[in-house]
Amino acid sequence: MSDKFDVIFIGAGPAGYVGAIRAAQLGLKTACVDAFTGKDGKQALGGTCLNVGCIPSKALLDSSRQYWNIAHNLPVHGISVEGAKVDMATFIGRKDKIVKQFTGGIGQLFKANKVTPYFGTGKLLKGNEVEITAPDGGKQTISATNVILASGSVPIELPFAKFDGKMIVDNAGALDFAEVPKRLGVIGAGVIGLELGSVWKRMGAEVTILEALPDFLSVADADVAKVAKKEFEKQGLAIKLGAKLTKAEVKKNEVHLTYEDKDGAHELVVDKLLVAVGRRAYTAGLLADDTGVKLDERGRIVVDEHCHTGVDGVWAIGDAVRGPMLAHKGSEEGVAVAEWIAGKAGHVNFDTIPWVIYTEPEIAWAGKTEKQLKDEGVPYRVGTFPFAAIGRAVAMNEAVGQVKMLAHAETDRILGVHMVGPGVSELIAECVVAMEFKGSSEDLARIVHAHPTLSEAVHEAALSVDKRAIHKGN
């Protein structure tokens, strides 16, 4: 006889584990099934984000920034350091230690909230049963009134540049190089490509990024993308747009690339190749044939606005469904579904989900871009303010970038905020709160912001919407 639960989550990434904890808080008997294995061979909760994504990449970004600052930022402060070097075992080991701390932390949270974890691959069967295949091949079946599919996503693999885990790698492989590659090729100038490319550039690699699209960071506002590209190229990242990879061959200890752009075919030889062309929903083996759950043309689980699949008691959240593949989006869907199941009013506002790229400078935004507003025929006003005029940014020697605010021309409601500069991953939160409460640029313009802080750039951008910024010309 199978164990019976109120809810079972398949997947313990940011969507699944957060949803499971919230469900348990609401008094539901909860289980969570996950098959991720850590470096020690044991179950590692937290999914891609915690194990080989958000957290380890930020650890390496921070470590690499410390090293970069020694040569590129400290001298302007009158500080010089001679003979700086990096111990790669410690560099990677610090990242691994942080990952293990947090995966263990989720285990403790499960224990405290009475969430039952299962180690293995979950498969939904008809009748809301879940078959669990353990790492040793053993099988067991559990069941629940509600099953929430939170299987996440996996890197997209190019047929002519298949991952081998050594020379041609995905995001996980690029987090574990034993030594700094002399030449690193990156396919894709998206979030992963830019962040990991930045890590290894700071550590001394010669980094070339090939992006098939003609525009840089087309998902971001054009003005922000332009500033970011200029700064990345100043740092030494070689970014080639409209460059489509056509061939990748491993020869001895090198990867020989062929790519095409408007000028024809080109050759490039690198020591390591990171393929970061996007991710796809991971649904392989997730569903038995007779469950009734449907997939769309991109392999994502079809759901309604409440994350319900249309099959009684079956829901889906996170990267495996429509919407942006962002950890915080998945987490909020997990919470919302748990609350809907418990008879409460769950809520996820897709219009105010923040995006962040943790490069140097950081990039962050929420809401509509200027191009989107133009295409939709929405009347708007624009306010901008540069970090070059912010005392705190200048004092930090990080006076690069700007804040750009878009407000409705008639109602003044904030429609989008776009930033590139120091600490914008934190600054965007103020704007998200204002947008969530249907705030106007006037609201932010009349709120007192501490001086001297980076947040003054948000304040001045809001003032700029009405042509009354104080510390720049209007």
Report on the structure:
The mean pLDDT is 97. Strand 5 and strand 6 form a beta hairpin. It is built from 13 helices and 22 strands. Helix 1 runs parallel beside helix 4, helix 1 runs parallel beside helix 8 and helix 3 runs parallel beside helix 6. It is α/β, with parallel strands linked by helices and 474 residues long. Strands 1, 2, 3, 4, 5, 6 and 17 form a 7-stranded mixed beta sheet that branches.
The overall strand count is 22
User: How helix-rich are the residues, as a percent range?
Assistant: 25-40%
Query: What is the average per-residue confidence, as pLDDT, rounded to a whole number?
Result: 97
Largest sheet: 7 strands, mixed
Number of helical stretches of at least 4 residues: 13
Ends distance: 73 Å
What percentage of amino acids are in beta strands?
25-35%
In terms of structural class, how would the helical and strand content be classed? alpha/beta
Gross morphology is globular
Radius of gyration: 24 Å
Low-confidence stretches: none
Short description:
The chain contains 13 helices and 22 strands. It is an alpha/beta fold. A hairpin with a 5-residue loop joins strand 5 and strand 6 (139-149).
Task: List strands and helices in order, with pairings.
Blueprint: E1 3-10, H1 14-25, E2 30-34, H2 47-52, H3 54-72, H4 88-113, E3 115-119, E4 121-125, E5 129-133, E6 139-149, E7 153-155, E8 168-169, H5 171-174, E9 183-187, H6 191-202, E10 206-211, H7 222-234, E11 238-241, E12 244-251, E13 254-261, E14 264-270, E15 272-275, E16 279-281, E17 314-316, H8 327-341, E18 355-357, E19 362-367, H9 370-376, E20 380-386, H10 391-395, E21 402-408, E22 414-421, H11 424-436, H12 441-445, H13 456-465
Parallel strand pairs: 1-2, 1-6, 2-3, 6-17, 8-15, 9-10, 9-15, 10-11
Antiparallel strand pairs: 4-5, 5-6, 7-16, 12-13, 13-14, 18-19, 19-22, 20-21, 21-22
Helix pairs in contact: 1-4, 1-8, 3-4, 3-6
